[in-house]
Amino acid sequence: MQQFPIRLTSIEVCPSILRDAFNGGTYMNRVTTGELFIRPMKPPKAGTPPRGLVPGSQSRMQEIHDGQGHVLVKVHFYEKATTDGITTRPDPKWMLNDYANLIPPRLKGHRCVMCRTAP
User: Is the per-residue pLDDT at 5 higher than 60?
Assistant: First the structure.
């Protein structure tokens, strides 16, 4: 896989801002149309699923990348162990946006730069 030739700055943003950027980029629709590709980062994590998910559900991290192999987004979701294959909505954990890495704050309760400066 090709890598970007420069080291990118990481910017901590609140999870809601990361989700809004992910949803605004219509990444899952673009995967469906074949414009982008999705692949597992590692095997699914086995164990007891969180409350509300049926036994046998799996935690999964995946990467969404373009046709040249550049990773654009890393997302987490749970695959439900049902016959219809329904999964939970993707939860973005890392995103390349305007040549910066968007990541959630590392400290619980920490507000991102954008939220601290909001009126």
Answer: no
- Can you tell me the mean pLDDT for 14-37? 89
| 78 vs 87: CA distance, rounded Å | 6
Rounded CA-CA distance 95/63 in Å is: 10
Give me the residue spans of the domains in the chain: 9-45+54-117
Beta strands 37-40; 9-12: pairing state? unpaired
Two tokens, residue 10: 């990481």
Identify the residue whose tokens are 């968007």: 102
User: Average pLDDT over the chain, rounded to whole?
Assistant: 76
Task: Reply yes or no on whether the pLDDT at 119 is more than 60.
Answer: no
What 3 state SS string does 47-101 have?
CCCCCCCCCCCEEEEEEEECCCCCEEEEEEEEECCCCCCCECCCEEEEEEECCEE
